[in-house]
Amino acid sequence: MRSTLFALLALSVACAGLTACKPHERTFGEKVRDTVDPPKGPLEKAGRAVDRATDK
C-alpha cells in the first residue's frame, strides 16, 4: 500500500511539469501528419503532444 502511494506521488510530481507547458500552435506539417497518419489511440496522441510541447 505504501509503495503504491509513493509511486502515485512520484508520478504526479513528474507530470506536474507538463501542465506548465503552453499550448502549441500546430504547424502545417503537423496538421498534414495528423490528417494522413492520425494517432492510433490515446498513448500515441499523448506522445505526439509531449513531443510538440518539448520541441523534439
If you average the pLDDT, what whole number results? 79
Distance between the termini: 37 Å
Rg, Cα atoms, Å: 15 Å
Indicate the proportion of strand residues.
under 5%
Low-pLDDT runs: none
Number of H/I helices: 3
Helix and strand succession? HHH
**How is the main sheet built?**
none
Helix/strand/pairing category: mainly alpha
Can you tell me the overall shape? Answer: elongated
| Total number of domains | 1
Question: Helicity level, as a percent range?
Answer: 55-70%
What is the number of E strands? 0
Keywords:
3 helices, single chain, mainly alpha, 56 residues
Secondary structure topology:
Layout: H1 2-19, H2 28-36, H3 42-53
Region (Disordered): 31-56
Signal peptide: 1-16
Keywords: Signal
Written overview of the protein:
By secondary structure, the protein is mainly α. It has 3 helices and no strands. The model has no long low-confidence stretch (mean pLDDT 79). Residues 1-16 form the signal peptide. Residues 31-56 are annotated as: Disordered.
